Every structure is written in structure tokens, then in C-alpha cells.
Amino acid sequence: MARRPRPEGSASGAGHLLELARETIPPIHPAGIPFVAGPAVVALLGRRHPWIARPAAVTAGACAAFFRHPRRVPPIEPGIVVAPADGTISLVDEATPPPESGLGCEPMPRISTFLSIFDVHVQRVPVSGTVSTVTHTPGSFVSADLPEASSVNERTTMTLRCPTGRADVHDVAVVQIAGLIARRIVCEPVVGDELTVGDTYGLIRFGSRVDVYLPRGTVPQVRVGQRAVGAETVFATLT
């Protein structure tokens, strides 16, 4: 059987194995390091006591899996809107955007992605643009897969002004919504930041949902029940 050729200058032996491990095992998002390091230290210090070390090691491994931050390659076509997170498409409908988004009171196409505790929980920028608003809104913590979670749960709303390569400029809102056991939303950009589609911009800890509100007239390209891959699954194309 022919071997896959390696590029010139690539590592060999142990170095090559290390490269393969780096490609296969995703890194941890910085926000998750304390959650992994704490149980790992307990496991190390309690290694002489299996009843301490084993549960601590399992906890560290579970947190490392939860906060994994895999590399993604977004499409390059202008105006493409991609999934902001890994998960299951739970809603494809029209809804009034959150008032803090500044997008008015008329319904807009909405796509909701539900993240279980087993999904990657970093969020990706759905479309290239300039941040025009970032607003955190306190609220409840009902199950994120329920439709009312969009309006009653704690959330952070970010609105992007997005050029399409022509004279047109569109506004897209992406909303991080806390879930039943989520208690912390991380959103790093600030107003005025220039963001690129597919870049990591935030994180929701332990079960959540992310809504994307598209310009009126935009046709969603996904269906309810479909699995979304953050930064890679195409939600729509702005025209």
C-alpha cells in the first residue's frame, strides 16, 4: 500500500508523531484551563489515594473535552454566513430580534443552534463585519432548547455590520443564550472590532444555545434537526 507523501521539511520519528497528535487532539480554550488544571492538580497530589485521584482525573478529562477548541476552516465566498457553534439546528423561523440588537421590531429570519454538554462550546464569528453593539442581558435559565429561551434567558447579543462585496451593508445579530445549567457567557469582542468569519469570539459554559438573526429576505440554507459544524456549515448567503 502506498504511503501518503509528507511535505519536504516535515518532522520524522517522534517529531512526526507529535505533529499528528497536535492535529488529532484539539487544544483547550483558555477559559477552560482553570477547570482542567484544578482537578488535574488534585489527581496528581492524591495519586497515592485512588479514591481521590481517579475521580479527579476523570473530571479533568471531562473538562478538557468540554472546553476543546478544534481548528476549523470557513468558506471563503463573500457574504457567507456560517454556523456560530457546533450543535443541532433547533429552530429555523422568523422572530423579532432582541431589542438590544438595534435591528427594529419586525421579524427577521432566525436560525437557532442547540448545544448539548457534549458539543464544542466555543462560538465562532458567523460573518465578517464590524461590531456595532455588544449587550449582556440578565435573565432566567430555562432549558435552551425551548423557543422562549431566546427572550427570557440570560444572553449576550452582538450585532455585526457586514459588507457583501458590493455597495450593500447588512446587519446580522448573533445571540449567546445561557441554558439550564449554564451560568457564564464569555464574549470577547467590543464595539468597533473588525471580525473575520470563523474566528473564535466567545464561549458558553455547560449547555446553551446560539441564535443568528439574518437580514429580511435572506433564505436560510439549513433545516431543523441538521447537525451544524461551527465556522463551516453554511447558514445563508447575504446578497
Describe, in plain words, how this protein is organized in 3D.
It contains four helices and 13 strands. It has helices at 14-24, 33-45, 50-66, 149-152; strands at 80-82, 87-95, 108-115, 122-124, 129-137, 155-163, 169-178, 185-187, 194-195, 200-204, 208-213, 227-228, 234-237. Strand 6 (155-163) and strand 7 form a beta hairpin.
Give the key terms.
single chain; 4 helices; disordered N terminus; about 240 residues; eight-stranded antiparallel beta sheet; 13 strands; Glucose Permease (Domain IIA)
- Give the number of domains: 2
Can you write the helix and strand succession as a string?
HHHEEEEEHEEEEEEEE
Main sheet overview: 8 strands, antiparallel
Shape: globular
Q: State the helicity in percent bands.
A: 10-25%
Poorly predicted regions are 1-5
Q: Name the CATH superfamily classification of the largest domain.
A: Glucose Permease (Domain IIA)
The name of the CATH topology of the largest domain is Glucose Permease (Domain IIA)
Strand content: 25-35%
- Number of DSSP-assigned strands: 13
CA-atom Rg in angstroms: 20 Å
Average pLDDT, rounded to a whole number, is 83
Describe the secondary structure blueprint for this structure.
Elements: H1 14-24, H2 33-45, H3 50-66, E1 80-82, E2 87-95, E3 108-115, E4 122-124, E5 129-137, H4 149-152, E6 155-163, E7 169-178, E8 185-187, E9 194-195, E10 200-204, E11 208-213, E12 227-228, E13 234-237
Antiparallel strand pairs: 1-13, 2-3, 2-12, 3-11, 4-10, 5-6, 5-9, 6-7, 7-11, 8-10
